[in-house]
Design goal:
It is a single chain. This protein has about 180 residues and is an alpha+beta fold. The protein is built from 7 helices and 4 strands. It has a domain of about 120 residues: Nucleotidyltransferase, domain 5, CATH 3.30.420.10. Helix content is about 50%, strand content about 15%. Helix 1 packs across helix 4 and helix 2 packs across helix 3. The chain is globular.
Length: about 180
Amino acid sequence: EAGRGPLAGPVVAAAVVLPEGPPPIGLDDSKKLSPRRREELARCIRSVGRWAIAEASVEEIDRLNILQAAMLAMRRAVDALGMPGADVLVDGDRLPEGLRGQAVVKGDSTYACIAAASILAKVHRDRLMLRLAEEHPGYGFERHFGYPTPDHLEALRRLGPSPIHRRSFAPCRDALDRASATR
């Protein structure tokens, strides 16, 4: 999945089934790859594998909490593959409820299919945040993709939260509290 740490935007998960044989060269944890390399690998993964991408919205994150929303996005991605009952490998220490398989800590460094899913999720979320940056100017989403950088926190203080900010996250909640206190 991608997007558990940001203050804004959905959390995104991907599920990938790669064909037998050697995986695409260069698969690795998406965070270790340059944006350009992630884009190249994403094209390759989409052309050789079976894949699905799903999201959990900001509203779902605020209602459920980020962990449960990430699990929901993962479940949606696996369901979208259309392979009911298949064993899955999930990056992390928890398997989403209702799925059969194994959770693997640092799985994107161990399993090609997890690395591939990580790349697709990251590329999808980054593209989405670039579009959202145009819809919500002034926050700098095109630079930090919603992560809590000093620039983002300053924009949040100055502008208040946008509709895509996660109100359950402390910096966004604090900005809302400040805005209502000044009214």
